Amino acid sequence: MSLFAIATRKLRRRLGAVVDTSKEGCWAASFDSSKISFLPVAVVTPRTEKQIGPVLELANRHRVPVTVRGRGTTLMGSAAPVHGGWVIDMRRLKSVRIDAEAGMAHVGAGATTASIHRAAEARGWFYPPDPSSMEHCTIGGNVACNAGGMHGGKYGVTRDFVIALRGFLPTGELVQWGTATKKFAAGFNLRDLWIGSEGMLGVVTGAVLKLVPMPAARWTLLTAFKGEVAALRAARLLFRQRVQPAICEFLDRESVLCAERATGKTVFPGPAFAKATAGRQAPRAVILLEFAGGVAEVDDLKYEVLAWAQGHAVAFKEARSRAEAEELWALRRKCSGAMFELGDSKLNEDIVIPMRHYERFARFIARLKRRSGLPIPTFGHLADGNLHVNIMYHRANPAETKAAEAAVQQLMVTVVSLGGAISGEHGIGLAKTPFLRLQHNPAQVRAMQAVKKALDPRGILNPGKMFGVVRIWKYPKLQLKVPWDHK
Questions:
Q1: What stretches in the chain show pLDDT beneath 70?
Q2: Which domains does the chain show, CATH number per domain?
Q3: Which among 390, 363, 387, 395 is positioned nearest to 376, based on CA atoms?
Q4: 443-458: pLDDT as tens digits
């Protein structure tokens, strides 16, 4: 009997029914949204926080790899158990409690981001981070990759809202980093070290989150532009006016086309927005803006923003109601899944570009499309420079696959050369491992590896991620859809 099997038998004796070794259970936990499958030996779905400590204590003693997952929405392979071992599924730890007096949310790692939003809003508070998969993704996963979303430019990302974390070291020892206070300066800030560490330094079981007051007023504006360069130049001019949108979302023409095909809806109908091309309408690049704050503050902004739109956009329209605004945002959230209108596979890169290089980057993407012969729809968050570049191809076509591999390499080299980041909110996982050393020099990588060694000396937590080199596009991909593919 193997050491893994012996350890798994001990685990079942200790925890009983929360340990699943069935073929079906292990397969369901073998992949995330990267859809690359690696079968674990067992899946543990704890009902209480106390059940996690024994799992890690046994795993550490027997050197069993442990991968922690929420709903598996990550696109980077971060939750795929590449070394097998055990998976800890956190979905049952989904408590949400709002402290309306302090403006804090006490949440379990398995709580979905949307459930936190709804609970906060019911008490007059607002939790801004809003990944497009928010109905499915969990706060534990958000902490693991430091998730952002459309509100990031004004309000910040997950890190900016985490007050305290609870969880376990790889040894199974319970720890808490920070407490439910607005100030905490007692010791090293290991809380922030865990945020964005992709489950490689500890297992998050719960968090205390900062909330902000619910905005009294919101105003949404959809603007259309001749092309990508014109749209990005206009965005920079708006930001130069010291105008701070709550959300500023960019969709290039291919993204608009995909969203329209996937939903059957026209983003911005009418001749002012589209031009006739071979008897059909061709979409324009768009920027979707929302402003939030006090009623007087938002009213004052309208005049300045509408003047900007009149001067730079080819067309624009205001949302006449909150329901109409939500329809526009729902369309934007479908962009990622809608990209499959242009190919059955994609290399989805969440890069970050300094604002001063927006137009230069748009011209680079246009050249990359021509050179590769591939569609590369691009959309994302202009207020913080976090753009989602989707290199689309057909996996069964060797020429397209080769072109996609070359294109993603060119993309990452260019992003770093412009002073940008290879990831803004998805993390490294498996998918971005070939590019980590473009971003970080050897000394920086060694420092990160030293931290990993110090906190996880036996290397059991999420092994195989970040520091190795895995070309994920070379692995066979599961042909299935997950619920958030078209969300």
A1: 1-2, 268-282, 484-487
A2: 3-91 (3.30.43.10), 96-213 (3.30.465.10), 217-417 (3.40.462.10)
A3: 390
A4: 999 999 999 999 999 9
DSSP 381-416: ETTTTEEEEEEEE-TT-HHHHHHHHHHHHHHHHHHH
d(CA 349, CA 369): 15
Prediction pTM value:
0.92
Which three-class secondary structure string do you get for 35-100?
CCCCCCCEEECCCCHHHHHHHHHHHHHHCCCEEEECCCCCCCCCCCCCCCCEEEECCCCCCEEEEC
Cα(293)–Cα(270) distance, integer angstroms: 31
Q: To which H or E segment does residue 451 belong? A: helix 442-455
Measured distance CA(473)–CA(185) in Å, rounded:
44
If we measure between CA atoms, which residue out of 444, 470, 218 comes closest to residue 324? 218
Backbone angles phi, psi at 319, to 5 degrees: -70, 130
The β-bridge relationship of strands 345-352 and 386-393 is antiparallel
Q: Given the structure tokens 């006449």, which residue do they identify?
A: 320
